[in-house]
Amino acid sequence: MKIRPMIRVFVVLFVVAFTGMTLHLGGVFSSPPGWDAESGKHQQEVVGQTFNGVVLSMRDVRFNHTKHVLARLGINATQKVPHSFKSKEVDRSLEKFTGNRNYHTDLNLKVWSNRMAFIEVLEEFVLDTDAQYNSWRFFFEDDVELHPSLSNEEAQLVLARGMALANTDGIVFLGICGPSWGEIQGLNEHVQAAKCAGTCAHAFGFQQWKAAKFLSLMTTLNLEGGDPVVLGFYFDRYLHAFGRFVHQYWLLGSNLKSPVDSIWDHFGLLYQDRATFHSEISQ
Fold first, then answer.
1. Cα–chain-centroid distance for residue 83?
2. Using an 8 Å Cβ cutoff, are 163 and 45 in contact?
3. How distant is the alpha carbon of residue 266 from its chain centre?
4. Does residue 277 sit within a domain?
5. Which residues contact 152 (CB under 8 A, 6 or more apart)?
6. Element (H, E) at 216
7. Based on the structure, what is the number of domains in the chain?
8. How many angstroms separate the CA atoms of 264 and 279, rounded?
9. Per-residue pLDDT tens over the stretch 179-204
10. 99, 165, 199, 239: which one has the fewest Cβ atoms less than 10 Å from its Cβ?
11. 279 part of a folded domain
């Protein structure tokens, strides 16, 4: 059995095992936001708490910049180098997905490489024996920047309160594109969080159990808005479909619009700083 199929088997086994555990615990993840069923206490936000993050980046200068930005939030970042779009791994994987070579353009290969990398880091998280089932891990593209309206201290406080809010969901976004809004809550006098679904995958986080659930459902999700084959190349379309058809997720900083004039529909604590770092996929 090859490595990739083995990983997917392990992911499914993890989901099955975790589902059984949640039933045994009497519905831990249907508890109110911030409620810790194991301790029987309400979790307050912990300012200064650190999280692990993974940045998809092929260029050290972009990764180092992003790592510095994330450190301001208390997120310790490591680098994940995606396969080159010119590599045999990407070429063969895309052909296997489509069943032909009709889609082998540079753009599609770059997008597919991005999708492969996101799936790999999520699978690595799910199979990480050092992580707990409710551990958080964040995932980023390498062009993020903290919204300029926030100081480091305010951003850390907002993140802490937002993480308490999202604790029972197991999924949270720090930046998103084109969202459809739902419930709204205040995180402080200036910053809101909203339940939503949207595109872009530049700043989001999962708890380990929810990453496993997402991977198990990913290929069953209905991708709307175009050619289903081409949409399937884009990892963020699966996140969007998950928010649309499974459940919405909290976006922290939902009232913070990107300061980049050319990106009018981006919101969140972290935006894509396309003024400094242009998209390498579209080049």
1. 19
2. yes
3. 15
4. no
5. 72, 73, 146
6. helix 208-217
7. 1
8. 16
9. 999 999 999 999 999 999 999 999 99
10. 99
11. no
